[in-house]
Amino acid sequence: MIWLWIVVGILVVIAVVFISIYNGLVRSRNQVRNAWAQIDVQLKRRYDLVPNLVETVKGYAKHERETFEMVTKARNLAQQLTSAGAGERAKVEGELSSALGRLLAVAEAYPDLKANQNFLALQEELTSTENKIGFARQFYNDSVLRLNNKTQEFPSNIVASMTGFKAAEFFETTLAAEREAPKVSFS
Does residue 119 surpass a pLDDT of 80? Predict the structure, then answer.
């Protein structure tokens, strides 16, 4: 009879450990999903700002059509890939960031535009949004790291494989230009 109680006790301990690990995996997966949603919120904010910025600059720089088209194309492509994985989204978002950088470089050539209050407000809003996107990406990658650790470390990797948990994809930069240090010149 005592052996029966020992076996039941061991089974209860195993069940409690299994449930605890499973709940930790669920929390981590939900945190990754929440972090991804926060990136989407900030990207939507950027998508909404881009047309206003383009239109403001267009009024001053009519001959910079190629740059405007590139920004618009990159924005539209980024908006269409909302259900893509983190790697593909990172690549497209990097292209949009690069196009926005070229747009702001075009704006530098127009002193009247740089003094325009609407442009300055839009530029500040875009800068703020880019910072928020950076923080959201960092939070997402931190959440992915925690989930991936849990799906790969023992004993949670056993529970993860039994219950279908998989490692998540990091949001990584794929453009070489984004990895290079910026060149600063005071000449």
Answer: no
